[in-house]
Specification:
The chain is mainly α. It contains 15 helices and no strands. Helix 3 packs across helix 12 and helix 6 packs antiparallel against helix 12 (290-296). The radius of gyration is 26 Å and the shape is globular. The termini are far apart. The relative contact order is 0.16.
Amino acid sequence: MSSVISEKEEQKEVITVEDNSVTTKPKSTWRDRFAFLKDPRFYKVLILGQLLSICITGTNVTTTKLGMSYDFAAPTTQTFLVYAALAIVYNSYAIYKRGIRGWLLQFWRRGIYYFVLGLIDVEGNYFVVKAYQYTSLLSAMLLNCWSTPVCMILSFFLMKIRYRWVQYVGVVIALGGMGMLIASDVMEGKDYAAVDAVKGDLFCLLGATLYGFSNVGEEWMARKHPLYEVIGMFTFFATFINFVQLMILERNEFSAFTQNPEAVGMVMVYTVCMFVLYSLAPVMFRLGSAVLYNLSLLTANFYGLVFGISLFGYHITIMYPFAYVVIIIGIAIYHLFPTPVPSIGTFDQQKAEQERLELINGRSAQDQPPQETMPEIVINK
């Protein structure tokens, strides 16, 4: 009997040892930390981020060209065609995928959220572009970096993302690279005096804050719904908000703009860049996050210099290449630990099929009536 008990105790000890070995996690080595360098997902995020940065550069260059060569400063007029084109393309595709009934149900169920998102995006664009007319270039560039901390704060509280200390370090290093670019511009005398520094700085802070809210809000919706719905819905509302604002604030600028074919051509280039940017940004939000999106856009100044060499007579300083490398290093350090995943998860095939069935049937899964079962008939012989 005692031998049987001892055998059972030995089995228990083996089981507990095995259980402990399962629950104990091995310490990560530096080789594990840099394993992301072999992950194709990292390079997708990196390349996509730089493509978006080039798109931002295109919008900055065309806006600068419009102001310098054509004395055109009308942010609402510039963005109207962008929102209208996005709304037409993506809502047409949504109707093709879901039908008129499913498309209308999108408005009924989530229209208020997309309206708020569209309003935030329109006003963010307006205040940031408007800020450059009042504040100095240095102040505007510094204050625009505020959108990155805003995204981190909102992601922490709204999406329950918990960052590790290394990821904070990566963000600080990337922002430091941006600081090097700004310092180089100041040494080269590219800054200009502020017309109304307080007003311009407040506009820039407000615009950068709205950008942060817009990016996190768009990431939230992109992780729960199809991209064609997210882009199409919020740009649908943004088009009408933008048009009303245009008629109130920029009627004279709009009428003068339509009579200048060269300015119209520059706005068309601006529209193409923004169309690509708005189409790919939600993909970046899914693969990475709103924070990574904002970090990637920090390299736009470097690409702006490349375009500015031929267009505006800029020349390269020694700090620009170093600053570009520092920003990329900051993004890489951000990936040393696995990228935090929001508590809401992400949009997958299962969510897509569930939402498609709900929109086709016109009701959610929770509202579906329970299926009635036929009573079993028993025949007694």
